[in-house]
Design goal:
The chain is of the alpha+beta class and 136 residues long. 20% of the residues lie in helices and 45% in strands. It starts with a helix and ends with a strand.
Length: 136
């Protein structure tokens, strides 16, 4: 049995980076300034003796910094639409070296924010759920 979290996270980063004009990362670091997109994954094993299925949850967070009490909403919406268009552009959901993505469902989309001294940080989260099958 293999852990799918890294491969699926890398799949999403590689799929999104070419269509977005911001950096797509798998962890926030001090060197990455907003706007950027953060991709995180977690997995739950659903396999049996004859199948190796995982339920994958991928959270894609759009991070935008805006000055003042407003702004940034249009940018988060733009990136959200670009992400959804890219992920649902065909009937096939993708594959990695060791895993096939069998299903894809948008589980949740929510916007949150943090108040800063010089504005606010918008966090638009898109939660994708996949069934993933290990190939070998």
């Amino acid at each position: 049995m293999k852990d799918p979290t890294f491969e699926i996270r890398k799949y999403y980063i590689d799929a999104l980076q070419p269509v977005l004009d911001v950096q797509v990362v798998n962890y926030a670091t001090a060197g990455v300034e907003p706007p950027y997109v953060l991709v995180m994954t977690r997995a739950e094993y659903e396999g049996t003796m004859t199948t190796r299925l995982w339920i994958m949850t991928t959270e894609i967070t759009i991070v935008v910094k805006a000055g003042g009490d407003f702004g940034g909403d249009a940018m988060t919406e733009k990136y959200s639409e670009m992400i959804l268009e890219r992920l649902f552009q065909s009937d096939t959901y993708g594959a990695t070296a060791n895993f096939d993505i069998i299903t894809q469902l948008v589980r949740n989309i929510e916007t949150d924010y943090e108040v800063l001294q010089d504005g606010r940080l918008l966090l638009k989260k898109i939660q994708i759920e996949n069934y993933v099958e290990q190939k070998n």
